Amino acid sequence: QVCPRLRTPQLPIWLCSITGRHGVLFGTDSLLLSDWKTERVFHLYFYNGQQEQTKTAHLTIDTHSHHWEEDRSEDPSSPGKRLPSVEMAIRTKWAGATVSWNGTDPFF
């Protein structure tokens, strides 16, 4: 559970400890947290400084995606379905959002 004050800071910058590794999740649009209209589709970036991460991950977040647009071939609640920890952290602020990794391999 994440405290509401930590989910909504003044600037869109979050320090994260995800699966024992530290990283920074940030956005470049300062209106993201003060204007609800900017929360429909927006971009966040994640960097953890680990050797295997060669560039900052560019993530596209869609908070108004529809469940019927998801790939039906795999049930998201199935025990074999793993969600990246970064996506789960993002969903503590934007529940139900879809996250596009834009060609980057997700971090687990």
Provide an overview of this structure.
A hairpin with a 2-residue loop joins strand 1 (13-18) and strand 2 (21-26). By secondary structure, the protein is mainly β. The longest helix is centred in the C-terminal third of the chain and has 6 residues, at 85-90. Strands 1-2-3-4-5 form a five-stranded antiparallel β-sheet. It contains two helices and five strands, in the order αββββαβ. The radius of gyration is 14 Å and the shape is globular. The two termini are 19 Å apart.
Strand order of the largest sheet: 1-2-3-4-5
The helicity comes to: under 10%
The overall average pLDDT, rounded, is 82
Share of β-strand residues: 25-35%
Give the number of helices: 2
The total count of strands amounts to: 5
Terminal residue distance: 19 Å
Biggest β-sheet description: 5 strands, antiparallel
- Low-confidence segments, given as residue ranges, are none
Shape: globular
What is the element string, with H for helices and E for strands?
A: HEEEEHE
**What class would the helix/strand composition place it in?**
mainly beta
Gyration radius (Cα, Å) is 14 Å
Q: Quick recap of the structure?
A:
The chain has 108 residues and is mainly beta. It has helices at residues 4-7, 85-90, and strands at 13-18, 21-26, 41-47, 57-62, 98-100.
Secondary structure blueprint with pairings:
Elements: H1 4-7, E1 13-18, E2 21-26, E3 41-47, E4 57-62, H2 85-90, E5 98-100
Quick tags:
108 residues; 26% strand; mainly beta
